[in-house]
């Protein structure tokens, strides 16, 4: 189309301009501070829905492990790793659901900025604990099917992988965006 909407571009752009440039220069100057807070809150809720579901499923799975006969026969290392992992899953679940509880308490109090800021920190903490929970769950499972040293090494590799994609990649993307804006 002439206005560029058929190609996902904004009015006034040409096909020669990459979508990356358009995404980086997308203008939200028309947005009021209240609209920005509402958008930030809604985006955070969408992110939390994904994380909450996965964490709750993992937590439920971990809860069921303790009642299996083979787990009861496991050594103390497995029981300690499992216990720590189960507690981490509970804590992650609590942090990822906490924004809902905070919202309930500050609803209609004119504290949207504080809500969004607090909820974002809670989500970040919950994701960090979720990463540790996944590592613990992997260690419990891998310890059954491979030598312990290999299981520990594999889990260490998985933690590095998580750190690379959850923490390092966003830093790289942010720096590239800031450099392109200069």
What would you say this structure looks like, in words?
By secondary structure, the chain is mainly alpha-helical. The protein has 2 domains: 1-30, no CATH class; 33-181. It has 6 helices and no strands. The protein has helices spanning 19-24, 33-65, 69-72, 76-106, 112-145, 148-181. It is flat.
Architecture blueprint of SSEs:
Layout: H1 19-24, H2 33-65, H3 69-72, H4 76-106, H5 112-145, H6 148-181
Helix pairs in contact: 2-4, 2-5, 4-5, 5-6
Shape: flat
Q: Helix content range of the residues, please?
A: over 70%
Number of contiguous helices:
6
> What number is the mean pLDDT?
87
Oligomer type: single chain
Radius of gyration: 22 Å
Outline the biggest β-sheet: none
Order of helices and strands: HHHHHH
Low-confidence stretches: 1-13
Give the helix/strand class: mainly alpha
SS strand fraction: under 5%
**What is the number of independent domains?**
2
End-to-end distance, in Å?
32 Å
- In total, how many beta strands? 0
Which key phrases capture this entry?
182 residues; mainly alpha; 78% helix; flat; disordered N terminus
């Amino acid at each position: 189309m002439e206005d560029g909407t058929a190609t996902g571009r904004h009015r006034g752009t040409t096909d020669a301009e990459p979508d990356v440039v358009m995404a980086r220069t997308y203008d939200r100057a028309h947005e009021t501070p209240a609209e920005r807070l509402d958008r930030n809150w809604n985006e955070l809720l969408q992110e939390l829905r994904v994380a909450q579901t996965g964490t709750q499923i993992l937590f439920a799975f971990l809860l069921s492990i303790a009642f299996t006969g083979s787990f009861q026969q496991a050594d103390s290392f497995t029981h300690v790793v499992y216990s720590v992992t189960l507690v981490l899953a509970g804590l992650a679940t609590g942090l990822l659901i906490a924004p809902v509880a905070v919202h309930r308490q500050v609803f209609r109090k004119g504290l949207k900025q504080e809500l969004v800021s607090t909820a974002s920190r809670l989500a970040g903490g919950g994701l960090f604990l979720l990463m540790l929970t996944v590592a613990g769950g992997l260690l419990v499972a891998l310890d059954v099917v491979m030598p312990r040293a290999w299981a520990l090494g594999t889990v260490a590799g998985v933690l590095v992988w998580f750190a690379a994609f959850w923490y390092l990649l966003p830093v790289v993307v942010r720096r590239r965006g800031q450099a392109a804006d200069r």
